Amino acid sequence: MTDQTDRFEARPRVAVVTGASRGIGRAAAQRLACDGQAVVVGYGGDHDEAEATVAAIEAAGGQAVAVQADVADDAAVPALFDAAEQHFGGVDVVVNAAGIMLLAPVAQLDLDHLDRMYRTNVRGTFVVAREAARRVRPGGAIITFSTSVTRLHQPTYSAYAASKAAVEAISPILARELRGRDVTVNTVAPGPTATALFLDGKDQETVDRIAGLNPMQRLGEPADIAEVVSTLAGPARWINGQTIFVNGGLA
After folding, report:
1. Domain membership flag for residue 7
2. 8 A C-beta contact, residue 149 and residue 164
3. Which residues are catalytic?
4. What is the pLDDT of residues 143-168, one digit of tens each?
5. Which of 70, 109, 125, 250 has the fewest CB atoms nearer than 10 Å to its CB?
6. Is residue 121 in a domain?
7. Domain total of the chain
8. Domain with 140 in it: what CATH number?
9. 251 residues of the chain, pLDDT tens digit each
10. pLDDT tens across 89-105, in order?
11. Which range of residues forms the domain containing residue 135?
């Protein structure tokens, strides 16, 4: 048995997951809890949904606590990490799944929408990653979120894709900045996934058309993405500084 395995077995691992009140964030929080990690369920505004995530984790025998924090607020984000340390003893895994998507052609783009996406998707990633870089314990993992849309070049997605392309630039640089810390940093880039973020505002014909583009002939499910998060968050240590496209072969 290796020293690395000993380290993982020596103490329960603790995860901070943002955007965990619904969608991919919730699925990731529940999957990590099923893996045996205690979870801080970070949420922006929907307290009831965040508590529903906690309840689901606890009903399955896991440990979780909900903490509100705007990921772009550098005064609020430390509370997520404080909660992890106070309730569970430290932080091993950080999953920044919080994000927003507002779509429009470039010629019609509302710049307020652009600013909102950059605040959450880019600044929020920096704020969470900065705190993670300061607090994640050796053997830990930092996981950010991009999108497969950065490769698909779909009309109306320019501002959203640009904000997520920025996220892809952050992870490999942070991985190198954490040299010697034994902390991995990776980005997960889902394809179209059956969450409110994707489905809201789309009619069934549009959803079916997009699902049909995939060689798997379906949308992704949050559990598909959570499976990859689980792998990156666990003791498999040789994936670092990468963007992992999780889309069933769409791109």
Report:
1. yes
2. yes
3. 160
4. 999 999 999 998 999 999 999 999 99
5. 109
6. yes
7. 1
8. 3.40.50.720
9. 344 444 445 678 999 999 999 999 999 999 999 999 999 999 999 999 999 999 999 999 999 999 999 999 999 999 999 999 999 999 999 999 999 999 999 999 999 999 999 999 999 999 999 999 999 999 999 999 999 999 999 899 999 999 999 999 999 999 999 999 999 999 999 998 888 777 787 889 888 888 888 899 898 899 999 999 999 998 779 999 999 999 999 87
10. 999 999 999 999 999 99
11. 3-191+225-245
pLDDT digit string (tens) for 7-29?
A: 445 678 999 999 999 999 999 99
Q: Which residue's entry shows tokens 């893996």? A: 35
The two tokens of residue 135 are 């607090």
Residue 206 falls inside a structural domain:
no
Inside any domain, residue 199: no
CA angle in degrees (0–180, nearest 5) for 235-174-187: 60
Residue with tokens 């606590």: 65
HEC per residue, the chain: CCHHHHHHHHCCCEEEEECCCCHHHHHHHHHHHHCCCEEEEEECCCHHHHHHHHHHHHHCCCCEEEEECCCCCCCCCHHHHHHHHHHHCCCCEEEECCCCCCCCCHHHCCHHHHHHHHHHHHHHHHHHHHHHHHHCCCCCEEEEECCCHHHHCCCCCHHHHHHHHHHHHHHHHHHHHCCCCCCEEEEEEECCECCHHHHCCCCHHHHHHHHHCCCCCCCECHHHHHHHHHHHHCCCCCCCCCEEEECCCCC
Q: Which residue has the tokens 């791109």?
A: 251
Q: Which long-range contacts (CB under 8 A, 24 or more apart) does 152-156 make?
A: 152/250, 152/251, 155/105, 156/103, 156/104, 156/105
